[in-house]
Automatic annotation (TrEMBL), chain A:
CDD domains: TM_PBP1_LivH_like (cd06582)
Membrane topology according to the record: Multi-pass membrane protein
Source organism: Azospirillum endophyticum
InterPro entries linked to this entry: ABC_transp_permease, ABC_UrtB_bac, BCAA_transport_permease
Compartments (UniProt record): Cell membrane
Residues that span the membrane, as ranges: 248-275, 307-327, 339-357, 390-407, 438-458, 470-493, 505-523
First and last residue of the signal peptide: 1-23
Keywords: Amino-acid transport, Cell membrane, Membrane, Signal, Transmembrane, Transmembrane helix, Transport
Homology family: Belongs to the binding-protein-dependent transport system permease family. LivHM subfamily.
UniProt protein name: Urea ABC transporter permease subunit UrtB
Domain of life the protein comes from: Bacteria
UniProtKB/TrEMBL annotation, chain B:
UniProt cross-references to PANTHER family, sorted A to Z: ALIPHATIC AMIDASE EXPRESSION-REGULATING PROTEIN (PTHR47628:SF1), PTHR47628
UniProt keyword Iron, yes or no: no
Signal peptide from the UniProt entry: 1-32
Protein's UniProt name: Urea ABC transporter substrate-binding protein
Keywords of the record: Signal
Length: 540, 436
């Protein structure tokens, strides 16, 4: 068997070197994928890609997706896809249907990280000539990563044929990567090396930096090393600039999370003056509502899953707001004007709510999925921006704007302000203050619920979710100035950015401590926060 | 002024929380009866650690239930006594004292975090009882009254690093952890080990984050930056508990793939992955002594029983559960051998006891109160399970005093008579030294 393989390998090498169009019989190679464990699969894969026949692509793709199985009865390698309890089998090369098999009759060909790397490398090399520009593009990227010298010939042919500018640039970068790191480097002229490093510098991302660093630290010739080192420093300067911008984005993103968590508190604590320790639990309830809505979608309308978050928003607002109103009517309204009792009562409530959720949903994390429009990232210049974070930033500002409008432009907002500024007078003017109190608390809690929907995307959905945000929320509100929404906005963004700029230098732990010290000092100087309320409202 | 009021009130609030936690545990009264053997279960059922520890309480109840179906122990029924230390470290010590003095339990199975173990340790030594500790930990400890059924660093961290070094050719290391004793000690050991292997100091980056850290953007960006120096880079994660979910989500979002920068974790198991979409995490690694995906008849049986006991088909099993399985069976065997549940006799009978583990072998209790275990490395799969990619050929004996730290490399523990010492210094030939 081994001799036969070796013979086959020889044939393949000959085939690949003499003419790529010659299609070796791939059957035994595909068959070999299924034996010998990881190393056996890897060896067979290497031979498959050396054979250079794109006909092998479906088989390799199936291997990558984990769909390639060995039929236990006769040891045939097949593509198997789950259909109900059984598998439908197809031939990996001809795609002919091979009937069905029960789950126990086939065994998966397992892959590990090094195989995954090899798979993307060989898929890259085999699909360079694909008619689809997108496939060629990802093939070029895969070759760039693998730097597989055997792909050089195909790559050169592909570059000569390539019409698409972007794809050609990617292919040239891949070629430069192979040339600089491979054995060919020693035979290159200085001008060639120069143009290769230039190509990589033009690429300008971290992957290029990795490569150039590798070349600079390798055993290449002195000229190559010097050129690579020069390119590294140019690239590092450029990346440092983007890194600073990236940090600013992280600060903005953390700030918007803080804003979301704190803005509900700015209503209950800032406007009403209620120290609500159960605020974090309102956030948690919002997150669990998201989970329930998603479960409903998973069960009844899996196709509309992407919309689940949009449905969860009003649901979370109503549920958390409803719980808030119940809390206000049953507990808090008896405690107005007694901050210490309010604090203890709401703290107890927060523990009770946590334990209630723990009893209902269990102590473990619940999975809240990200809709497709919230997963992944995109590049903006040298910035990597994740869609999830981007939407949270947008959402935080939208909530802030909506709340501002609600307070300043609606009759409900007017009554809230009237009641907080002068309760007896508002009462005398015919405003039902008790009702306004309940609705205000409900509003604050409902906004916390909205925050829960957003936080479910980036944090654990567990009973402890709220605890992580309660301290930060109070910090933001106190720092920004109690009773002032703009203060909350500026406070959240300042603290977020400050945190992110300290983190790279001081570490996450010390960074947090420094921020806390800063706030303590700041409050000593300005006890009423950044934007202190002035006038008669303060005395009330 | 307002802040001052706030901070003082926070203290009162914490007291109130403590009181509530204490009240919760009174809900499970122990029924006194002389014809039963009582077994204490000391796991948090509320608070931050409930997420991990509740499962261990359930698995203990299941094991006790099964033992009773088999006829109990020494002709008596076993009776579980469950208390809730509420993720509150001082409360762990109080509850341990209550279990031993008031409920008169014969042995206690419990604790998760190292700080909770350190908190109960003096109680067990003073009242001379037995604790089975089921979680992987930092080592540097051996007590006569504690049996460590989780992994010591040489049964988890060192083999994982070896795997990355040999199979993935990793040359640059990020040691990322939560800021407390387990990650700090483990990273100290790993740092010494890596340097001993010729890794340069500039190729090691150490990063600590607070408990429950949720904004990983800049740290993941830092890791990417560190990984772009042209050498193969890996992350060794001792990040604990809740912080893992946002960490892995950020890794997925920023496109850090296992093929480029693999992350090997020591605190992430099946239970932790249950809350994440694992598709972007395909191929990231974890090192444990047990995975649910291990295919042995014993494991299949255990998983079946667990699902039947919890009446939930989706419940997963994990490494600390196996540690309790091993520890409980060892205790049963030792009690049978000693013919009594008296702690002194059971402790002497424990050393040398060997029971089947769930990965197809036998684990034995060593004289240093640690056990022998196989070390498995698994890669995360799309279904939230691990695929074992490497397994040590034999069993690895637990080493309590790390050979890679200058303070502890000369120490050994041997609780057999006549030595009976947890920190014997082989250089000076005396019992005592660090940790005495």
């Amino acid at each position: 068997m081994r001799r036969a393989l070796r013979w086959l390998m020889a044939v393949c090498v000959v085939a690949a070197t003499s003419t790529a169009a010659f299609a070796a019989d791939l059957r035994p190679l595909v068959q070999a994928l299924g034996s010998g464990g990881y190393s056996g699969t890897e060896k067979a894969l290497a031979q498959l890609s050396e054979a250079g026949d794109p006909a092998a692509v479906p088989a390799i793709e199936a291997l990558q997706a984990g769909d390639l199985y060995v039929r236990k009865a006769d040891g045939t390698v097949v593509v198997a896809r789950k259909a109900g309890d059984a598998f439908t089998l197809t031939d990996p090369l001809t795609r002919a249907a091979l009937g069905e098999a029960p789950a126990g009759a086939v065994e998966k060909i397992r892959i590990n990280n090094s195989l995954r790397r090899a798979i993307s490398a060989s898929l890259g090399a085999l699909t360079l000539m694909s008619p689809d520009a997108g496939v060629r593009r990802s093939a070029a990227d895969a070759v760039f990563k693998s730097r597989d010298a055997s792909a050089l010939e195909t790559l050169s042919a592909a570059i000569a044929k390539e019409q698409d500018k972007g794809v050609r640039a990617a292919m040239e970068q891949a070629r430069a990567a192979i040339l600089l790191t491979g054995e060919a480097a020693s035979k290159m002229t200085d001008a060639d090396i120069q143009s290769a490093t230039d190509t990589l510098t033009a690429r300008g991302d971290r992957d290029a930096l990795v490569l150039l660093n590798m070349v600079a630290g390798s055993g290449a010739s002195d000229v190559t090393k010097k050129l690579a080192a020069a390119a590294v420093s140019t690239l590092e300067q450029k990346l440092a600039f983007w890194a600073a911008l990236q940090n600013l984005w992280y600060g903005l993103s953390l700030g918007s999370v803080l804003l979301l968590a704190a803005i509900g508190l700015a209503v209950t604590f800032g406007v009403m003056g209620v120290i609500n320790m159960a605020h974090g639990e309102m956030v948690m309830i919002g997150a669990y509502t998201t989970f329930l809505v998603q479960e409903f979608f998973r069960a009844h309308a899996p196709g509309l899953f992407d919309l689940s978050i949009l449905v969860a928003l009003p649901a979370a607002f109503l549920v958390s707001g409803g719980v808030g109103i119940v809390i206000e009517r049953s507990v808090i309204r008896w405690l107005y004007g007694r901050p210490l009792e309010t604090l203890l009562a709401t703290w107890g409530l927060s523990l009770a709510l946590q334990q209630a959720v723990r009893s209902i949903f269990g102590p473990t994390n619940r999975e809240v999925g990200a809709p497709s429009w919230m997963s992944g990232a995109f590049e903006l210049g040298g910035l990597t921006i994740t869609y999830g974070r981007l939407w949270i930033v947008v959402f935080a500002f939208a909530v802030f704007a909506a709340l501002l409008v609600a307070l300043k432009r609606t009759w409900f907002g007017l009554s809230i302000r009237a009641v907080t500024q002068n309760r007896p007078m508002a009462n005398a003017m015919g405003i039902r203050t008790a009702r306004v109190d309940a609705l205000t608390f409900g509003l604050g809690s409902g906004i916390a619920g909205l925050a829960g929907v957003a936080l479910s995307q980036i944090d654990n959905v567990s009973p402890n979710l709220g605890q992580g945000y309660i301290l930060d929320s109070f910090m933001v509100v106190v720092f920004g100035g109690v009773g002032n929404l703009w203060g909350t906005l500026v406070g959240a963004l300042t603290l977020g950015t400050m945190n992110k700029f300290l983190e790279p230098y001081a570490g996450a732990v010390l960074g947090k401590i420094l921020v806390l010290i800063f706030i303590i000092l700041f409050i000593q100087r300005r006890p009423r926060g950044l934007f202190a309320l002035k006038g008669r409202a303060v005395e009330a | 002024m307002r802040t001052k009021q706030l901070t003082s009130s926070f203290g009162i609030g914490a007291l109130a929380g403590l009181a509530m936690g204490a009240m919760a545990s009174f809900a499970m009264p122990a029924q006194a009866a002389d014809d039963t053997i009582k077994v204490g279960i000391l796991h948090s059922l509320s608070g931050t650690m409930a997420i991990s520890e509740t499962t261990l309480k359930d698995v203990m109840l299941m094991l006790i239930d099964e033992q009773n179906k088999k006829g109990g122990l020494l002709g008596k029924k076993l009776e579980p006594v469950v208390v809730d230390p509420a993720s509150n470290w001082p409360l762990f010590a109080e509850k341990a004292r209550e279990l031993i003095s008031k409920d008169k339990v014969s042995a206690v199975f419990g604790c998760w975090t190292s700080v909770s173990r350190k908190s109960v340790l003096p109680v067990f030594e003073e009242l001379n009882n037995i604790l089975f500790y089921p979680v992987q930990y930092e080592g540097e400890e051996s007590s006569r009254n504690v049996f460590y059924t989780g992994a010591a660093p040489n049964q988890q961290a060192i083999p994982a690093v070896d795997y990355l070094m040999q199979k993935e050719k990793v040359q640059r290391w990020v040691l990322a952890g939560t800021d407390y004793v387990y990650p700090r000690t483990t990273n100290k050991i790993l740092e010494a080990y890596l340097k001993g292997k010729g890794v340069k100091p500039e190729d090691i980056m150490i990063n600590y984050t607070p408990f429950g850290h949720s904004d990983w953007q800049s740290i993941v960006a830092d890791i990417k930056k560190f990984g772009s120096a042209g050498k193969k880079t890996a992350v060794v994660s001792t990040i604990n508990g809740d912080a893992n979910v946002p960490f892995y989500k950020e890794l997925g979002n920023q496109g850090v793939k296992a093929q480029d920068i693999p992350v090997v974790a020591f605190s992430v198991g099946e239970e932790e992955l249950a809350g994440i979409d694992t598709k972007p995490l395909l191929g990231h690694l974890a090192a444990w002594n047990y995975f649910q995906s291990v295919e042995t008849p014993a494991n299949a049986e255990f998983i079946k029983e667990w699902k039947a006991y919890t009446k939930n088909d989706k419940r997963v099993t994990n490494d600390p559960m196996e540690a309790h399985y091993i520890g409980f069976n060892m205790w049963v065997k030792a009690v049978e051998a000693a013919g009594t549940t008296e702690p002194d006799k059971v402790i002497d009978a424990m050393v040398g006891v060997s029971v089947p583990n769930l990965t197809g072998g036998y684990s034995a209790m060593l004289p240093n109160h640690h056990i022998t275990k196989p070390v498995l490395i698994g890669e995360v799969q799309e279904n939230g399970q691990f695929d074992v990619v490497s397994k040590t050929s034999g069993l690895v004996p637990g080493d309590e005093w790390s050979d890679f730290l200058p303070d502890s490399k000369d120490l050994i523990a041997d609780w057999r008579k006549p030595m009976s010492c947890g920190n014997f210094n082989v250089k000076t030939g005396k019992c005592g030294g660090k940790g005495s």
